[in-house]
Specification:
With 210 residues, the chain is α/β, with parallel strands linked by helices. The protein has eleven helices and seven strands. Helix 5 packs parallel to helix 6. The chain is elongated and about 65 Å long.
């Protein structure tokens, strides 16, 4: 449901928020102690068994990591989850782009769940799909793509939309550990690299090639 920016809209939004807060489910959740919540998580894990896998990113707090079946960085966790075909539910305790990556690698019967849909990543937000598409169009409009073979590369910490953009345009996705060899290989096939969204990784890696 959308709300206007006016005073009436703000009142409607506040009313909706208050109504949500009054629901028994949330009242029950917020009224529980950490120990009770932990026990409820473990009960759910026992009931679901191998149908559930909980992924805990390194950045998570100890009270989250203690419930994780697998821990590691985002790409590693996504790959490990994809190797568990019996896991119907993949709960990714991380940020939005991580859950998207897991969803890309998951099987059709698997459901990827992000506990907090508001969990974002400032790096992934450094470049939107609209900005990248606009920059790509500008490269074409000034003739860069006519004179040079331009290859788009996105860092793993980016949205699924940017990964899809690279796929549509013959590009690649890199991690911080394979950026150097991937740049080296790509520069044998392309004249220029269009890298996003992490300017520091792009600049520092590019500096190695002059």
């Amino acid at each position: 449901m959308g709300f206007s920016d006016g005073r009436t809209g703000r009142r409607q939004k506040m009313t909706a928020v208050l109504e949500i807060q009054k629901t028994p489910a949330l009242e029950d959740y917020f009224g529980r102690s950490d120990a009770e919540l932990s026990e409820r998580i473990e009960v759910a894990r026992r009931e679901l068994g191998s149908r559930l896998v909980i992924l805990g990113h390194h950045y998570q707090r100890d009270d989250v990591i203690c419930h994780a079946d697998l821990t590691g960085d985002s790409f590693k966790l996504s790959k490990m989850a994809s190797e568990r075909p019996d896991a119907e539910f993949i709960v990714f305790c991380g940020v939005h782009f991580m859950a998207e990556s897991a969803d890309i690698l998951s099987a059709p019967h698997q459901k990827v769940i992000l506990p907090d849909m508001g969990a974002g990543c400032s790096m992934a937000d450094m470049a939107s799909s609209e900005q990248v598409e606009d920059a790509w169009d500008q490269l074409a409009s000034i003739g860069i793509q006519d004179d040079f073979r331009v290859l788009p590369i996105t860092y793993m910490n980016s949205t699924a939309a940017l990964k899809a953009f690279c796929g549509r345009n013959g590009g690649l996705v890199c991690t911080s550990s394979n950026a150097v060899p991937l740049f080296e290989k790509s520069l044998k096939e392309a004249d220029k690299l269009f890298f996003f969204p992490d300017q520091h990784l792009g600049r520092n890696t590019g500096a190695k090639f002059g």
